[in-house]
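MOLECULE: protein
FOLLOWS: sequence and fold
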Amino acid sequence: MIRVENIHKTFGEQVVLDGIDIEFDAGKTNLVIGRSGSGKTVLLKILVGLLRPEEGSVWYEDIDLVRIDKDSLKKLRMQVGMLFQGNALFDSMTIEQNIRFPMDMFTKMGLKEKKMRVDYCLDRVSLAGINNKFPGEISGGMQKRVGIARAIVLNPKYLFCDEPNSGLDPQTSITIDKLIHDVTKEYNMTTVVNTHDMNSVMEIGEKIFLLEHGRLAWAGSKDKVLSDDNEHLHNFIFASPFLQKLIDNQKG
């Protein structure tokens, strides 16, 4: 579980986050949605410790990330997996070396043990046997799955995904959504996904949080998305061709 309390963040005179209170549940896919400029990217950076807020707390169970010391922060980061929007794979490294990277950084495991863990994670994302390929030799969807394999290689308690379906075709996006949902359940992780993809909302949105102008405008599950009368939610939905088509079909 991660609990965000009264988070404020500004850049100069621009207020980006204005008193955010959110609780992300373990074992669930927690989706943060919102238009560009809503504050969701800044919130994610605060959640992983890349930015510090001017006010508020970010609780990982009973540890406040905002006030943590460096040694405790390093220990906490060993429990965190991150799937980046642009995959962030090292082009000069093989797939195996990319997935092994967090183990090289944070553990004293032997090479044989690391390879066994790499093989397990590749098999888990249905990419067994591509250890010696380079990122440039596989598709964008496969790169994203490699990113997931790397994110789970340390058995994390927390998983963060920044626009995981960016640049992917609809079918591959569904595959990535299902994989994120499945590993969340398997590891009982607290998973936070930043997305503007309403397909993802309707497929895996167990808890959904809508940000608008740096504030929490709505919270609920995918079952409530189409029936809730929240004005901010409606405005966001109607900007989505996917959901607009779905609503029109239901009316018909």
Observations:
- The chain has a mean pLDDT of 91.
- The first strand starts at residue 2 and ends at 11.
- Residues 102 and 154 are 7 Å apart (CA to CA).
